[in-house]
Structures are given as C-alpha cells and as structure tokens.
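Subject: sequence -> structure tokens, single chain

Hey, anyone have a minute? Need the predicted structure for the following. Not urgent.
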Amino acid sequence: MDSQSFIIDNDKTVASTSLILHVNKDDVLIYGINEQGTCFAFDQIDINNIDNSNMLALPTITKSSAYINTDDFTLIPNALFEEEHKATYATFNFNLKEDYKVLTSKLTKYNLTICYAINEIMFHKLNTLVPGIQFNHYGKPLIESIDNEFHVHFVGKNQLEITVSERNTLLFYNRFYCNNKEESLYYLSLVLEKLNKDIKLQPFVLSGNINSTSEIYNFWKTYIPEKNIKIYQTDKTKWSNVLYSSNKFNHQKTLF
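Reply:
Had a minute. Here:
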C-alpha cells in the first residue's frame, strides 16, 4: 500500500484540532479538522505503522474520534440492550475472535445500539497514542444522517452499504460485497423484496464511489427509472462527508 499525506493549510496557528481516524483492516486514514469543520491535513498510513504518523502528535488536538470499519457488527434496540451482555449480542451476527473486544455506538435518533468488534491490540494502541479518543462504528455518521430514504453508499469498487429509513424508523442497514454489477443489483433486489418495495417505484439516493458515468449506475438505469435515482453531492470539506466520499486516496486528495 502506498501511504499518502498532505497539509492543506500550512498555517501553524490552528488553535483547535479535531482528529478523525478512519480505521480499516489494512490502513488508517487520519484527518485534521479545524474549528470551522474543514479538513486541513490528511494522512494515510499502514495500520501497523500508525504510531509513526506525525498527526497524532499535533499540539492543538482537543478532540479525537476513531471510526472502525468492520463487518463484525449487530444492531440491538435500546429497550433490549444491556451493557453487560454486549458480547452475547455480538455473537448473534458474527463469530467473536478471542483477541477482539466488543464496543458500542449509540444511534440516538433510532433508539438503537451498534455492537461491533475491534482488535484488542489496536484498541489499546489507539488509546495510548491518542488519550481520550472516542470510538464509533463506521456506519454511525451515515445512518444518523439519513432521513426517510433508501440510501445506497458505494465503498471502493466492490462494497456497498444499504440503509433504509421511514418515518424516523431504521428499517434496514447492512453491507454487501459485489464482484460485478449484476451482483450489486441482486443484493439491491433482495433488500427491496425483504421490505416489499417495487424497484420501478422506489426512489434511491446514491453516495460514495459512484457518479453518472459509473458502470453500475448505467447498469441500474436499465431497471430503475433515472428520475428515481439521485446521486448525493456532499460538501466535501466536511469531515462527516469525507468519510463517505471514497476509501481511495486518489479520490480523497481532490476533495478539498
């Protein structure tokens, strides 16, 4: 993996920095966010070399958050959730490895809790490198930003996340890996069938690594009326949208 880094704002007088870490399986994307909510610095580094990132030593850090990108998660209604049983809830959806621990993220808007797994060594390393860091599941910002829509977020080239909410209720959230455009439509159709929705009538919002010239977009148009497809245009200077713009640096570096 080719690590990349850059400083957008060379002004060393930034008074307050929020540090956002997007922790993937193999690498970590680190964003420095100023008081205006604009990203002024970025670093992409191998997950095994994270302690070599100079951004973790910025003297102006006042808040830090890590968003853990993992498939090992489950959603539990708050009415049923009990903290002491979070490891048990996790095993409803995935096998919890011995060297992993379960963390939680609250989805206040939907009265749900995400239980997800993180490697214990990485958890302790991040706590040591960035004292006081707050952990959240990668899906939290996207889920909480959606209002009454059928949202498909494209992560990289072969992964999509489908989030559906209606009348302030989260009806569905999951991620799928697709080897080709046909598989992407297959998974979309499965969700539509589960929710009893018609592909010809349902409006869709798309975001992430997708645009009007994408192969998947043009393939979907043969089954979905184009008037029912909206590609979400984010304010790409805001960190919450940066997380959902793309996983690849060659797209990230054009955002600011």
